Amino acid sequence: MPDDASPLPPKRAVTNQADGRTDFGAPAGPDPSTPGATNPSPPAGGTVRAKHAASLIVLRSGSGEPHMLMGMRGASHRFMPNRLVFPGGRVDRADLKAPSATPLSPPTERALRKRTNAAMAHGLAAAAARELQEETGLTLGHPPRLDALHYLARAVTPPGLPMRFNARFLVVDEQHVRGELAGDGELEGLRFWGMTEAQALPLALPTRRVLERLQLWLAMPPTEREAQTSTPVLLRDRGWLME
Fold this sequence. Notes:
The protein is of the alpha+beta class. The chain is built from five helices and nine strands.
């Protein structure tokens, strides 16, 4: 199941260009300015394969600006410590055959099927639902309803880092979520953050780019979102490319 971490033609880049930030959420390591410090590096055998992963943006929308359910990763996390993130994580083998109350909507399944197969498309959605419950205590039902999930974008950790993810970002409206905020403690300060408030923080580059993409997505009529045949992907920091 390919993760397609190779560059796409630059001429297909869209207008959302980079702002000079290069933090793709590399694992925490020693400060290179410290004498004797060494930073994590990939195995001598070559580039680390990007693992399939999914993040779920629980969206609260109303008369004001959108709010997203987000939390801060603790300092002890290897990947993106001390960063505000969405609930999410890598796909487990069990996710590929996890039960669901409803299938994915055709537009979301079509988008998830790019660069992978039907089993992984389901696994990505199931992983998003599972991680939501584990990290926040909220659910899409038991088993989860997947038909309310919308596809937003894909982001691949660049080669050369010791931990890499091929992450899909999905969106669900708060009205489709049940339960009370709790979770396993992986995300601190878990709550709905306003768009302006979140963007004012020193976010990891993929998170910042996804929030920008979310704003563009929200500005589209629902019919236009569902009709999209090209979907955005972030490879390194060259802005969004379409695939």
